[in-house]
Amino acid sequence: MKIITCVKRVPATTTRVVIDASTKSLDPTGVEFLLNPYDEFAVEQALQVAAAHEGSTVTAISLGNAAAQKELRTVLAMGADDAVLLTNDLALDADVTTTARILAEAIRGREFDLLFFGKQAVDNDAHGVGPAVATMLGVPCLTEVVKFELDGDKVICEREVEGGREILESPLPCAITCQKGLNEPRYANLKGIMKAKKKPLEITEVDLGAPALEVIDLLPPADRPAGRIIGEGAAAVAELVDALRNEAKVL
Fold this sequence. Notes:
By secondary structure, the chain is of the alpha/beta class. Helix content is 26%, strand content 29%.
């Protein structure tokens, strides 16, 4: 079985966000980068499927700058067989459509049965790359999966919906976007880290082309107004209701 998992290098969620006005994007100075947390679930599921089917291979693909080799080496240390870095200095700021197009072009010439993605990247929370790649490749996409089962030549998945769970089936090949709760991602141990140094990591420069999305401006959220106390006891109820209705507009 041929399995491909797409991953992304992202800023840590603890990053203190500073906007670079010249690029209208995050200023990377002093920022810690790591493997997108949702992509860890995708990698883990890919490795579990491969372990259950002898002869299977797992390939990790990422669009990123040269520094993204670190995250791909992490995936290799977790157990992936090989990796591909589609590199461009501006890749971190690529929009969803551009990212999906570059990934789809790289995958199109490869044999695959399953594509795994994290449900979203924590930098822009777009939720769009997995479904867009699947659409461009003409394969079904099951999103935000929390339970995965491979049954012969089809997959049976579950995802959470309001009030319950939805059960989905799809023939192979197909794409899966992975949600928290699907599995418990493994850590790369010392043995895996040493093996990763010898595993193939292909680096290919790519042209992003014209962006599909133009960022007009990027601004931090406005400061919250200071709170205030409205009177005391029952006498303040009418004034509180008026403030909630006419000022906060939540009633």
